[in-house]
Amino acid sequence: MSPSSSAEAVPGAVPAPDEHHEHHPSYLVDGTTVKSWLLTLDHKRIGVMYLIWVLLFFLIGGTYALVVRLELLTPGPTIIDAMTYNRAFTMHGVVMIFLFMIPAIPGAFGNFMLPLMLGAKDVAFPRLNLLSLYLLLIGAVIAIWGMINGGMDTGWTFYTPYSTHTTTTVAPILFGAFIIGFSSIATGLNFIVTTHTMRAPGITWFKMPLFVWAMYATACIQVLATPVLGLVLLLVVGEQLFHFGIFDPARGGDPVLFQHLFWFYSHPAVYIMVLPSFGVMSEIVAAFSRKNIFGYRAVAFSSLGIAFVGFFAWGHHMFVSGQSTFNAGVFAVLTMLVGVFTAIKVFNWVGTVYKGAVDFKTPFAYFCGFLYFTVFGGMTGVAFATASLDVPWHDTYFVVAHFHFIMVGATIMAFMAAIHYWFPKMFGKMYHEGWGLVSAALIILGFNATFIPQFLLGNAGMPRRYYEYPERFQTLNVASTAGASLLALGFIVSAIYLVYALVYGEKAAANPWNSKGYEWLTESPPPTHNFVGPQPIYTEEPHFYVDPQKAEEPHAV
Amino acid sequence: MNELLNKLLFLPEQASTFAERVDNLHYFVVSVTMLSSFVTGTAALYFFFRYRRRSDHQTTEYVIPSVKTEFLFVSLPLVFFLAWFVIGFRDFVFVQTPPKNAMDVYVMGKQWMWKFSYPEGPNGVNVLHVPANRPVRLLITSRDVLHSFFVPAFRIKMDAVPGRYTQTWFEATKPGTYQILCTEYCGLSHSKMLGEVVVLSEEEWDAWAKEQRKGSLQNRQDALADLSLEPEPARMADQGQKVAAEVGCFKCHTVNGEPHIGPTFQGMYGRTETLQDGTSLRVDEAYITQSMMDPGAHLVTGFPNVMPTFQGKLTGPQTAAIVEYIKTLRTPDIRTGASQGPVYEPIQ
Q1: Class of domain B236-327
Q2: Which of A123, A195, A370, A482 is most buried, most CB within 10 Å of its CB?
Q3: Does residue A327 sit at the B interface (CB-CB below 8 Å)?
Q4: Which residues form the Cytochrome oxidase subunit I profile domain (chain A) (predicted)?
Q5: ipTM higher than 0.85?
Q6: Entry pTM
């Protein structure tokens, strides 16, 4: 990897001369006390703190995942008892979803990149931004306190009446998730207002980077859907502690009502997790193909489309809950539309590579993995929406494999790609490209080896959340556990060389990828107020690599 | 071909009429998924290679999709997905609609076992006997938390929801024993909530049913003077009548067709009622259950909202018995064949 300086490739942003540096230190060294970090209002520092925390949560969630996989190595009890197992898979889900996947990309990279991409000095509400980080941490502390003091065994879906009858500690964990919801709403609100009001002159709606479009669509879902989750979690706590009777049939309640309310948030929440990764990938495929995005508007609008129809698809989680056949048909069709919007994105990403100039670096390797997980995971999603196929697959390992492919696979690919792509921007250092490719290969292979056997387990009829299973399912479970070990190894490798790069890494050039993404129009790492000297002038759309000498009519295919 | 794909995809054997239908769609969907992943992947790989970067400052052409391309991008997935939907929804309607001549079995999930009862009398736990090649309708409920009744070989699954009845059906195609699993997480021993369906051939079924009847006879030998008299089997409906009398249903509901404070039970099952909000609905198990648990939910025109709830006052089996009792008071033209099943000695 040879980071080449390319001042001429970044019109507008003139890297400041050396003596300038002393007046405009990078955000990393502008104040070095603990307080200057903990009480910072700088979106970049908040982004970095988010990154550190979500990585810690990822470690916790991942450890639970390995415990679960190890337990499933043999049909009977292996390393833990049934109750511990039930708590482990619940906490794996709760931690990974609420503390990792939902906040990861918006919290860490959204916070860091959104203002840079909009040519703004910060987000619209810096204090609210800091508050949303601390709300996440308060929620996490309460939830983890609950995990240590009793734990919960309901599964992350908290289905009533089990969740209101279980003797485990449900209330603190639900309350933690409730507080985390406020963090999510605050972040979303901040991003919406920032996008509307803080775009630099020249950045029109259709010149916004696609990552901003994706974050904007995500933020709309966060603001509109999260309150429903907050409400339903409070109702469950009330039901358990004060016996409200809203979901308990013994008191005239309806357990299926809970499922409707829960999925009304939790289905759109899937898009809170994957839309940011779609945004990251749009940036990366353009940067490493040196191409404008093929069908920019189609990609931008399909994000909004997914956000919109995502609200009307929740019923596909209830095909076998006794809801009416007609409802099932309506929800089936509406769910298909999500697949169509995703397909538009996939085709346009592949189209972006067409006639590009592909540089196969680590982020691009993750893009390849992402493309495959999205196509395969997305197609299995539509297969699920096909009502009759859902009947045998529902609540089996096929579901587990499917959502790990699309929701987790896509998010992890994008998260890892984002770390590598923006590492020089955030920390001013370069990671080792060779190790980057090795760990990307390990992670992608490990992921496949973990979850492809689970698709087959689902076909064979193994239900999810099983502590013990009939012997005929063992071979595939062993394969899946072996894959999980490979996956863990991949993450360990990347953790090692990334930490190494942070300390000993080669100093990165301002724009090591020669990218024409807007965030590269400033120094790496950026100064506290994002830009030194006059603001960059935004005359071209992001990722415009056409040679001005040879500028011609757009070539349509 | 079917055998091969079945093996390749690790699918269990096909032992019901629905299994064959759903698997055919499964093969189609898997093929399309594989093929499109392959095409997209190959195109991407080809582009990665063909358009690899040659120099550090290479520029690119400004390529945008034409309307034709955009149209292709939208219509191609849409056509496939809609095709899946049409076939899938047709099959879903099939599995959601039990045939009229189906034999009824009540299923109750309970932490952590399955209880089965036939309208003619209660049966045991965790083993469901059914005849082959005859449609069987399952009326499923739960007495505690959510469960889900799943028979992989039949490809059927339906949640057991406390406080209501859900239904599904199957027609087993070959005799044998098939596993029942619970697929909705229900607590500590969720994974041990296993059962089996024993599918008997027509002759075996008759013999088995007769055996049940004989046992029933022997138990009553002392009480009966004349063994040639076929004793009346203990029926779920009879218990329902008893329970209905005990809890006071007949204070408001008649069984002779006369409307009283509430609608008559006579012919209620299967009747289409006009509701006070102007809509109408057909009285089925779910409606009768709901009317016991939440009487005000769907009021029939002309009757006051005075019925108390029986939520928590009736157990699952009692509710099932009352439903079964009301079903016996139907007018004969509603269903072509009465529910049939073996005769059992009640477990009391």
Answers
A1: mainly alpha
A2: A370
A3: no
A4: 37-539
A5: yes
A6: 0.84
